[in-house]
């Protein structure tokens, strides 16, 4: 057994696996293969996205349950009409294919743009490759959201506050989850410029949809957006065994079948736990601590949203890599086991190839257990952020300086 592991390790250490050409080709083929497999097949999510552009042009409600959307509706902000526009203008098959290529390209560029070492980026690409497939099969925007968090952080680290503000505000205006990017505010070097940029981008993104519709229409749609999100959240809470709420909030609700209690009993403590590391102001100057905060953000936003679905875990997958590879101390066997557990039961558990289907359908999906690895890693990460020294000193696993 040991000899097999040694051979496997030697195989994966071949230069082929870390060659940018290999990774680029793989990530170029992923959306093309998925798109061809779905050629002329149902693309319900893409139809919802496409409708945002055409409904904006025609000044129709963005949040109605139109028959052609097959019982669902849009939950993205009006500015999304510009994001989807180049694809909505094309025939559906080509539009969907290029949309999926765009999502993967955005994620690829975001990882390459991160101020990580080469081996860390290579590790992230391979670690996340399988999970990239999950949102692609349903044309979901989650890849872009994951890329957005990486861009936000990278721009702040590279002292580009205007572009950091761009990605934060754009994601807020598209899906609201981008508000979590404001957690990086304390790491911004030029806070005044950053805040002014946030205001400027917010004004631009608010007004921009008016250029292809009208001011009255856009204002009305923002009201409709709020109402649709409230209604969607209520639906997620009321239906204990639907496919949404695959989150920390959903685990007790789905296991107990109780839909009567308020999620604030979990959300408020969760926010306090998330904020607890911010008290360690002396750690802000250490890049490893800032990376840990990025990992925490990618996990928190997924764990504490009733709208999280099984294909929304690409962001925490990047967070696992950041958590594991950027600590200034040497990771031990316990951490490696936790990383493997998170990989298997977050990513591979949805695959018929790697996991028996009945385990997913009868156990993991009904009780939102896909959220469990992220929950464990997140609490472990928070404990580290509250207790460990993130200076550049090389530390042993027990925290002592070597």
Model description:
The chain is mainly alpha-helical. The chain folds into two domains: 40-239, no CATH class; 243-402, no CATH class. Helices cover 64% and strands 0% of the residues. The chain contains 18 helices and no strands. The two termini are 33 Å apart. Residues 394-402 have low confidence and may be disordered.
Concise account of the structure shown:
This protein is mainly alpha-helical and 402 residues long. Helices cover 64% and strands 0% of the residues.
Task: Map the helices and strands.
Blueprint: H1 2-12, H2 15-18, H3 20-37, H4 44-57, H5 80-88, H6 92-113, H7 118-136, H8 142-157, H9 161-175, H10 191-207, H11 215-238, H12 250-256, H13 264-275, H14 287-303, H15 314-325, H16 333-346, H17 357-364, H18 371-387
Structural descriptors:
402 residues, mainly alpha, 64% helix, 0% strand, globular, disordered C terminus
Spans where pLDDT lies below 50 across 5 or more residues = 394-402
> H/E series, N to C?
HHHHHHHHHHHHHHHHHH
Mean pLDDT: 89
The count of DSSP E runs of length 2 or more, i.e. the number of strands, is: 0
Our count of helices gives 18
- Form type: globular
């Amino acid at each position: 057994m040991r000899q097999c592991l040694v051979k496997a390790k030697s195989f994966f250490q071949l230069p082929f696996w870390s060659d940018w050409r290999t990774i680029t080709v793989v990530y170029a083929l992923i959306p093309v293969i998925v798109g061809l497999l779905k050629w002329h097949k149902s693309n319900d999510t893409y139809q919802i996205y496409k409708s945002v552009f055409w409904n904006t042009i025609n000044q129709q409600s963005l949040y109605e349950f139109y028959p052609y959307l097959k019982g669902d509706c849009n939950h993205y902000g009006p500015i999304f009409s510009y994001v989807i526009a180049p694809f909505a203008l094309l025939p559906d098959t080509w539009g969907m294919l290029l949309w999926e290529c765009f999502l993967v390209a955005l994620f690829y560029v975001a990882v390459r743009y991160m101020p990580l070492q080469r081996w860390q980026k290579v590790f992230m690409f391979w670690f996340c490759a399988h999970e990239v497939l999950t949102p692609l099969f349903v044309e979901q925007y989650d890849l872009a959201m994951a890329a957005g968090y990486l861009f936000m952080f990278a721009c702040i680290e590279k002292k580009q506050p205007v572009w950091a503000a761009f990605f934060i505000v754009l994601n807020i205006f598209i899906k609201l989850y981008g508000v979590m990017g404001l957690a990086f505010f304390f790491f911004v070097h030029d806070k005044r410029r950053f805040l002014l940029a946030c205001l400027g981008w917010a004004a631009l993104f608010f007004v921009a949809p008016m250029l292809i519709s009208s001011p009255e229409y856009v204002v009305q749609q923002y009201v409709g957006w709020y109402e649709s999100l409230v209604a969607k959240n209520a639906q997620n809470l009321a239906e204990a065994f639907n496919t949404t709420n695959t989150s920390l909030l959903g685990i007790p609700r789905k296991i107990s079948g109780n839909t009567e209690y308020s999620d604030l009993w979990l959300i408020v403590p969760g926010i306090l736990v998330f904020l607890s590391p911010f008290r360690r102001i002396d750690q802000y100057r250490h890049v490893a601590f800032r990376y840990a905060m990025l990992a925490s953000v990618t996990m928190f936003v997924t764990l504490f949203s009733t709208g999280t679905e099984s294909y929304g875990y690409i962001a925490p997958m990047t967070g696992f890599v950041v958590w594991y590879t950027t600590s200034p101390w040497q990771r031990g066997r316990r951490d490696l086991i936790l990383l493997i557990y998170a990989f298997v039961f977050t990513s591979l558990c949805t695959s018929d190839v790697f996991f028996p289907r009945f385990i997913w359908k009868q156990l993991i999906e009904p009780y939102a257990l896909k959220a469990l690895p992220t929950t464990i890693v997140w609490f472990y990460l928070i404990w580290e952020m509250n207790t460990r020294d993130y200076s550049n000193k090389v530390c042993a696993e027990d925290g002592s300086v070597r």
